[in-house]
Amino acid sequence: MDTSRADDIRRAWRAAHLSPLWESPNAHKPPPGPREAHQWRWSELRPLLELAFEETSPAAVERRVLQLMSPHSKSDADEFTAGNVLAAIQCLLPGETARPHRHTMNALRFMLEGSGAVTIVDGKPCPMEFGDLILTPGWCWHQHRHDGSEPVLWLDVLDVPLHAYLGTVVFEPGPIATMPHTVEDAAFSSPNIVPEAIGSTREHSPVFRYPYADAVRALAHAPLSADGTRRVRYANPLTGAGAMPLLDSTMLQIDEGPATLPTRTNANVVCAVVEGHGESWIGSRHITWGPRDIFTLPQRNWVSHRSLGGAARLFAVSDRDVLRRLGLLSEEIQRSDA
Ligand code: 1HN
Questions:
Q1: Contact by Cβ (8 Å): 244, 178
Q2: Which residue, 12, 173, 180, 282, could crosslink 37 as a Cys pair with Cβ 3.0–4.6 Å?
C-alpha cells in the first residue's frame, strides 16, 4: 500500500472527526490488572491533618477538608480515592461552624475522633460521636457545628467521581430559603415498624444518623457470611435498600481466628478501621492496620482479612450499588476446597 495515500486517508478522516476502529488502542481492550491498594496510617495522617488547623479555617474556605487522593490519580483535578468513591478527612475546632450548602453528590460522615460536633441535615440535628454514621444525601442541606472542647475529625465519603463523569455536579450555597420537610429519626427507632405517613419520593433513607452502638448490636447477632466475616449494611428502613442510592455502607466484623476466605469484586471499597488490629492481603499487597487507619480495596483484587487479637471492625463504603443497579456487579469467593 502506498504509505502517502494511507496517510492522506487518515488525515481526511481526522479532519472530518472520524476514527478507524481497527487502529483504536481502546477497542475491546481489557482493563489493565487491578490497581494496588493504598493505606493512610492514622499515625502518619494525624500530624498532617493538624497542619490544616494552622493553615486555614471554615470561615475562610467553608470546609477544612483534606482529600485522600488515590496514588493512581493523574492530577489534583482527578479527585478520587478508589473508583467512584472519594474519601476525605474534615477537621473542625471547638466553636467553629461550616455554613449550609447542598449538592447533587451524596455524602456521608463517619466519626473518627473527638466529640461534641453536630451535622444539621435538612434541619435535623445529628450529633456526631465516635463510630456514628451521618448521611447527607444528595440535595439535602447540610451544615456542621462544633460545640465540644477538642478538635473533631471525621471521614467524608462522596460519590463525586461518578457525578464528575456524568456531568451532574450541581452545587447551591445557603442560606436555606425553604427547609424541606423531614420526619424525626425517632419515628424509625422501633425495629421493623415504620410510620406510614411519610409520602417521601426521595430515594435516600429518611434516617440521617446511624449510631455506632446500633451497628455493634446488629453485628453481635449477625450470622457469619460465607467468607467468615460478619457484615451489616446501613439500610433505608422504608425500602430495605441501601441508605443512599449511590454509596453502599457496611460494617464488617472480623472475629479472632483464621483469615477470612479471599473475595473478589469489581466494586471499589474504602475502609476505615473502627476498632481492633488486623492484617489484610489485597492483591499482591499485605498491610497491617489499627484504629482510624484508612485503606482502599481497588476493584478486582483478591482480598482477605485477619484479626490480630479480638474482634476487629471495619467501616466500608463502596460503589457496589452503582454496579449492581447497572447489572455489572461481580462478587466471587474463593472456597477453601477450591
Ligand atoms: C462537601 O460538601 C463536604 O459539606 C465535605 O462537609 C467534603 C468534598 C468534596 C465535595 C464536597 C461538606 C466535600 C464536599
A1: no
A2: 282
